[in-house]
Amino acid sequence: MRILVVGSGGREHALCWKIAASPLCDKLYCAPGNAGIAADAECVAIGAEDIEGLVAFAKKAAIDFVVIGPEGPLVKGLADRLEAVGVATFGPSAAAAALEGSKGFMKDIAAKYQIPTARYARFTDAAAAKDFAKTFTPPIVIKADGLASGKGVIICGSLAEAEAEIDAMLKEKKFGNASAEIVVEEFLDGEELSFFALIDGTHALPLVSAQDHKRVGDGDTGPNTGGMGAYSPAPVATKEVETAIMDRIIRPTVAGMAAEDRPFKGVLFAGIMVTKDGPKLIEFNVRFGDPETQVIMLRMKSDLLPALMAARDGTLHNFDLRWFDETALVVVMAAQGYPEKPQTGTVIRSLDAAAKVEGVTVFHAGTRRNTQGEIEASGGRVLGISATAKSFEEARARAYRAVDALDWPGGFCRRDIGWRAIDRA
């Protein structure tokens, strides 16, 4: 098969790395890819949201199957366009991708199909939003309705802060059109969990659990980011918790989307808060997570490609996946200044030394080759230093050993990835 992966981040590198190992894959392309992905796939200089460019390339290159990484092209209808010209595609339709494209729509689906989630309301009027915010005891959560590159969710520690954020989003258009409407909701207290399931429109096949670290600094301090590290399995995801998530959140959503005539096919990524009252839905994403994909792919023993094809073809009910009984952990190396103003163009050396550490795989997220052929930072999150081992402690030690083998003064990372798992031990 001739496969095209769309995207350029660490998630797409992990997907390319896994798909390249499939005996079904004869030729692998990635658009646009990055310097690390180039080792596993032929990179094509087409942007992930260049819908017409991607469709034209898929036809010209006789692509058999497309795997769409980021949410942007899904919300814009890339899967619909590819399927319309006869190219089989993994990823939901634009109608189904609204689960991530509109936080208000997602909350309405949760309310309609009795899926446990935080109390909320949707607003376009600032005064009404502020009145509703007064019904909560802080912290109060304010969310831009549309896609805001992972930055559209603000946890406000006081009512005054919430009111200022409401004005910033609705009146000052802080996130442009993405905050033309907002969601105001209660803050859920508990432990966060990333839960993934492949969906074929009717059936759901759960993947292994993972836990992400959103804040930029050690001890979960500083602003939210796209994710500074992750590990799998997540100790908070007990058998009982996973069963409750499937029964109360995933399956009702799949049935509800089918009933709404928006059948969901692809991967459903549920951000879950495990509260004292059981798991509750924070948000849905309609694609694989980053950096969770890196650890999930490292633990997957099965061939990924047939599973993605079964989700697209509607044949997941007979499908099963096998997993390595190991811990996987990824430490994200980011460019200095991330998330506000990452410094790009800094050269990264000693990547080979990092990759030689036992059990380590280095995934690239924001990298490119400069005119001298050196690898340099081209984004905020730049590398995913990933490791597997029999024990959590050893996986963590290996990952940080590889981090310390790098020669990159322009980068930084958190030093406490996995602290919740350690506290539980």
User: What is the fold named in CATH at topology level of the largest domain?
Assistant: D-amino Acid Aminotransferase, Chain A, domain 1
Structural class: alpha+beta
Q: How many structural domains are formed by the residues?
A: 4
Query: Please, what is the average pLDDT?
Result: 96
Helix content: 25-40%
**Under the CATH scheme, which architecture of the largest domain would be assigned?**
2-Layer Sandwich
- Determine the N-to-C terminus distance: 45 Å
Shape descriptor reads globular
CATH class value of the largest domain:
Alpha Beta
Q: How large is the radius of gyration?
A: 21 Å
Number of strands: 23
Number of helices: 14
Describe this protein's structure.
Helices cover 32% and strands 27% of the residues. The chain is an alpha+beta fold and 425 residues long. The protein has 4 domains: 2-93, Rossmann fold, CATH 3.40.50; 125-180, ATP-grasp fold, A domain (Dna Ligase, domain 1); 191-318, ATP-grasp fold, B domain (D-amino Acid Aminotransferase, Chain A, domain 1); 327-424, Alpha-Beta Complex (Glycinamide Ribonucleotide Synthetase, Chain A, domain 4), CATH 3.90.600.10. The strands form 6 sheets. Strands 12, 15, 18, 19, 22 and 23 form a 6-stranded antiparallel sheet that branches. Helix 7 (126-133) packs antiparallel against helix 8 (159-170). The longest helix has 21 residues, at 239-259.
